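Minutes, project check-in
Item: structure for the 142-residue chain
Input as provided by the requester:
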Amino acid sequence: MRTYIPKKDDIEQKWWLVNAEGRILGRLATEIADLIRGKRKPQFTSHLDTGDFVVVVNAEKVKVTGRKLEQKKYYSHSQYPGGIKEETLKDLLARKPEEVIKKAVWGMVPKGKLGRALYKKLKVYRGPSHPHEAQNPQEYKF
């Protein structure tokens, strides 16, 4: 018996369109991470990029449960002494709603070279329009 490992030519990559309006952030991020990783495909291989491209629209209309809007904090550091900055989810959603979804998905993909390659397949946009009409993305049904 030999283990099947797909070749680069055997992997078909589709484009999916995901509408984030009214979706819960964490549940949406897990679905997106599975699509990007290719976990729902029969030729899924954990060490290869078998996933699809995902275009997310209406990022500003994503929902969160509980008191996460006030309690969840995102941190960044400027690499200088005393350079840590913190921002609540509510502030980040108002300023850059795309980053909220990107950060949630980044936490769910593997870290390293493969994870960075997978992460580049995620395209998130604030409103209902996006510049990927030429790729003819299919709407993803949950």
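Outcome recorded: The mean pLDDT is 96.
No further action items on this chain.
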